[in-house]
Amino acid sequence: MKRVLIVKVTSLGDIVQALPVVADIKRAFPGVQVDWAADEAFAEVAQWCEGIDRVLFAPLRRFKKARSWADFKAIAVSIAALRAHRYDFIIDIHGVYKSAIIAFLARSSRRIGYQSQDLGERGAAFAYTGRFGPRPECNAWHGMRISAGEALGYEVQGPAVYDLKLPEPAKPPFAGERAPVAALFHATSKDDKKWPLSHWAVVGAELAQRGFRVVLPWGSEGERREAEQIAAQVPGARILPKMSVTEIAQMIDACALVLGTDTGFVHLAHALQKRTVMVFVATSPAHCGVDAPFRSISVGDGFSVPPISDVLDAIDYVHMEPQALAVHQGSAAA
């Protein structure tokens, strides 16, 4: 085994949670080169992974919206780069038309994808010469690791390894700040995934009382206005300026706590081994959640709005020391 291509095109959280596949492959096949194909909008995330040898990308999302000639030419150039090497295996762990087309255009006689019932778009099946086994009964992130292992003939071992190394910031994000920083990612791409602003304000005020400096990132004008509503009720809260993906990642890495909905940046916080609480309102925590003892936890059932008390309990949990956790677990068992 000399060279493998992983295809996972979007989005930020999905790419972050797929990265442990790289460490699995490199552990199973020492010396193998692992390349990654992604949308240009998320290519920098894959580039942070030290195990990836080459990141291939094209402005697919932008071309779909703008249909510009410049983006079309960039896609043509990316196809040439994609076909520059022959791969022993191509592993499509995305399973939609655009990922299947990438797999089909790349040079390999072994292109592996999901079974038809597990594909995001069933027509993607045209690209594959082989299929993964049935989707395993586990969360989506571990399932990707299992599927890749099935395709390449190794067993998944140990916890997920993300192998992330961020670029050094020009200036530390919270230089001079003495209090631990808690970032509240209240915004989300879909309204049904939102946790009420009033709930964010209560939790933010509680964190401020506990000695945290609460910061609020945002991406759109609507999200900024919501951040202002929360900040008005949280002593000392700071609304951050608009930042790039890399700048937000560097900010997360400087935080003591990250709390947010099921969004890509909160998944990134988990991958960066920050103390993380993820709030689920309309998506499945069993399928998409995060979990690491003492450090990351998912709150909610995915069908209703989690109460404030559950989120505060989760914050206590991720800040609990191992000895205290053992006592806590013993009390719960009793």
UniProtKB/TrEMBL annotation:
Cell compartment(s), UniProt: Cell inner membrane
Main location: membrane
Membrane topology recorded in Swiss-Prot or TrEMBL: Peripheral membrane protein
Catalytic activity reported: an alpha-Kdo-(2->4)-alpha-Kdo-(2->6)-lipid A + ADP-L-glycero-beta-D-manno-heptose = an L-alpha-D-Hep-(1->5)-[alpha-Kdo-(2->4)]-alpha-Kdo-(2->6)-lipid A + ADP + H(+)
Keywords: Cell inner membrane, Cell membrane, Glycosyltransferase, Lipopolysaccharide biosynthesis, Membrane, Transferase
Record EC number: 2.4.99.23
Pathway: Bacterial outer membrane biogenesis; LPS core biosynthesis
Superkingdom of origin organism: Bacteria
Family listed: Belongs to the glycosyltransferase 9 family.
Descriptive protein name: Lipopolysaccharide heptosyltransferase 1
Gene name in the database record: waaC
